[in-house]
Amino acid sequence: MNLGMLHYVIDHVYGAFMHRTKLSPPFFSRGWGGPKLELLEKLIKQLFPEVEGQNWPPRVIQPIWRTIWETKSGCLRQGVFRTPCDEQLLSALPPESHNARVAFLTPKLVPSHKMACVVHLAGTGDHTFERRLRLGGPLLKENIATMVLESPFYGQRRPVLQRGAKLQCVSDLLLLGRATIEEARSLLHWLDCEAGFGKMGVCGLSMGGVHAAMVGSLHPTPIATLPFLSPHSAVVAFCEGILRHATAWDALRDEIAEQKSGITLEEVRERMRNVLSLTDVTRFPIPKNPNAVIFVAATDDGYIPGHSVLELQKAWPGSEVRWVTGGHVSSFLLHNDEFRRAIVDSLDRLEWREPQ
């Protein structure tokens, strides 16, 4: 067995343990989400570039901060703010997700206009701040701050009835994405207008990378955009990759069968493709500086096929793809240095903002 095949097998072994055992229920065990799904389909479509201006500026947030620790080289604070989502979106979110939490790791004794800051978005199952803080920590010496957003449905924002990362309804996936985008855009606006950072960026791994690509696409000025180990659409993750084995296809079919008898699993999967096509980032506008977009993809990823990354690169001429040797799981564990290098290089391709 060659090394590439070994990485691919590791993804499948990990996937079998996590998704084919009864340790937790599958994704979408409670179905599509009923009327909530129809509402969210309309709200997601509003992100697409038919309207000039892209609803900018976003709603203003004012995080309430407390210091966690402080050293000679850096400071870690945590902040809480009310999600800036509008009333329609807020009413669809579970109450536990109404307040957002962020961790903010900054260098000491450096003016903000001489610093960069990158907002790190959560991948599937990333319930805490720690992994992303470990990724960003070594960047302090490069005068790069790290802001980590806790996603709706995750961590302290997880609904009481949800077990782990397994979202209960398809509508939850769309809701998580739309709310994350709204919150990330408001955080970038805060970093720009309130904190006065000289450069900004957004990154994420896997699902977080999809959201990072959307946020970078919609931002009205050039920012570093860094999707790591991420597809161009959730269709790829749930209909092609390993997560298709973690999806409650029977429950989804049973819900449709209440309205239409004799439906096949293939018809259920086709409906899933249609719904999740709303997450296709190739439909989003090209970022203002595509040269500051760097994808990092794995050569033997069992969750995210390589063609998906190349589709988004093709849609965004000028963007760069960097390949690391490994699968989804092994690259997540072993290639943090490559992720950090991509962050530094992407920020280097931006101009410094003049201090206000």
Automatic annotation (TrEMBL):
Signal peptide residue numbers: none
Biological classification of the source: Eukaryota, Viridiplantae, Streptophyta, Embryophyta, Tracheophyta
SUPFAM superfamilies reported in the protein's UniProt record: alpha/beta-Hydrolases
Domain of life (superkingdom): Eukaryota
InterPro entries xrefs: AB_hydrolase_fold, ABHD18
Name by which UniProt lists this protein: Protein ABHD18
Pfam families, per database record: ABHD18
